[in-house]
Amino acid sequence: MKTSDFYYDLPQELIAQDPLEDRSSSRLLVLDRKTGEMEHRVFRDIVEYLNPGDCLVVNNTKVIPARLMGVKEDTGAGIEVLLLKRKADNVWETLVKPGKKARPGARIVFGEGLLKGEVLEVVEEGNRLIRFEYEGIFEEILDRLGQMPLPPYITHQLKDKNRYQTVYAEHDGSAAAPTAGLHLTPELLKEIEAKGVKLAHVTLHVGLGTFRPVKVEDVTQHHMHSEFYIVEEEQAKLINDTKAAGGRVICVGTTSCRTLESATGEDGVLRAGSGWTDIFIYPGYRFKIMDALITNFHLPESTLLMLVSAFADKETIMKAYEEAVKERYRFFSFGDAMFIK
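Given the sequence above, the corresponding structure tokens read:
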């Protein structure tokens, strides 16, 4: 299976640059993965496709303002640091631009000295381990100095930080938003629950590995970066009970899907717990627990496009994407959604 098998042509102007004012007014392409039949709806119509007894699984991770603009202490040269993963109390794995200015020992100053960092070592993929020094609470300093780490294909400035955050975001730790959840509003969630649909929360802190391009031509040779997940006891019970009662487990986004598929045994039972997952789902994968998926439209040749192609069959997905381009849907993080049932 080749990476190029997952290529499609996307006109630049279909990449959504700004979120819609009303989250739930995005368009929704409904795809029946068995028949290939498609319907064009609005996202808030999702309620019509959910049944009493189903369980909607959301990822309640919170994006941290992980992009820091600083200067080298000795030369004053500009340097950008993106926080990826906390390794110890004040040590983070980071992505630094330009890397050549961030050799071990280099010191970086942010916010006129409110925060300082020292590069400790260069690790996998050229990432840097940086130890931070500050007075006070790190999260509060980050909130003052940090910017939302929007993907590189979004060139517009985000006016409201909360628009790159789901309405149920709770646990700090992501370098990117679980974007399928951006369409849900508190009102829509109430409507969904009033219909008799259960809502389950899991946590997966999204790293940039999810969005890294696949650089090998043979898909099976690609290695995913690991991300930290948590499935709590009562949430696992809720999801397992749904399955046992014949309801559907519907994941909101590929991150919820990857969490459940990582924590579910071959017996189809979801286990509570936490840990690191580098699960890579591509065609040929047998899903253990997910029955339906709400997702955005993903980049050509990406691991996310491979995941949805594993769920609905590659030809069916590529036809749906072709239809979405023809109908001028909005693509990627701030774009429209798809319900694969």
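The chain has a mean pLDDT of 94. Try to locate this feature in the token string yourself.
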